[in-house]
Amino acid sequence: MAVPPSPLLADRFASRPEFGRTDHLLVDANPAATWKALRGLDLTELRGGVAGFAVWFREAPERWRAREHGPARERTRLTWDDLDAGTDWMILGENPGHEIVLGAVGKFWRPVVKWVPCEPRDFLDFATPGFGKVVWSFTTHPYGERRTLLSSEIRVTLTDPQAWLNFRRYWRISTPAVSLISRAVLRTIKHNAETGGRAR
Known about the structure:
The structure is a single chain. By secondary structure, the chain is of the alpha+beta class. The chain has a single domain, classed as 2-Layer Sandwich (Alpha-D-Glucose-1,6-Bisphosphate, Chain A, domain 4). It has helices at about 10-15, 30-40, 50-65, 80-85, 120-125, 160-195, and strands at about 20-25, 90-95, 100-105, 115, 130-145, 145-160. Strands 1, 2, 3, 4, 5 and 6 form a 6-stranded antiparallel β-sheet that branches. It starts with 8 loop residues before the first helix and ends in a 5-residue tail after the last helix.
């Protein structure tokens, strides 16, 4: 008998994305260890200098705009919970041991992103024209007896045709950086799951 597909929390927030990307990585660790590494990830320790540069480059306009306020405080740690508590990103939902979903609302295509404060309960119904909604989910699935399939999926929906056109142009040039960051996150989780977080 066929096994019914497992529902995804990401489907609740972006069931019909207009743009998206999915990356997978096979982890030589069980789902429990992989989930622990995923949930405890520190984004300041992403593996791969190119991905780090992509993050730095994307945030450069905001840092330049705020230069009159003095040097920005360097983060020493940045977890999913830190993102949720201290940035315009939010944890939309979590299925412990299997999936975590983050989201943000804004005009991502602008040189200085215009973020919109939004609560998770309001994310699905947000429809103000001119904006985009991004959903970033991570899932873990058993793969055989002792390995785990780790997935990262980014889904984007836009609130009107003009926002769609603006984002399409941005997506074409930003996809390489988005890909680097997504794969760097997966590689870091894989490394931490397989080594218990120990440096190699």
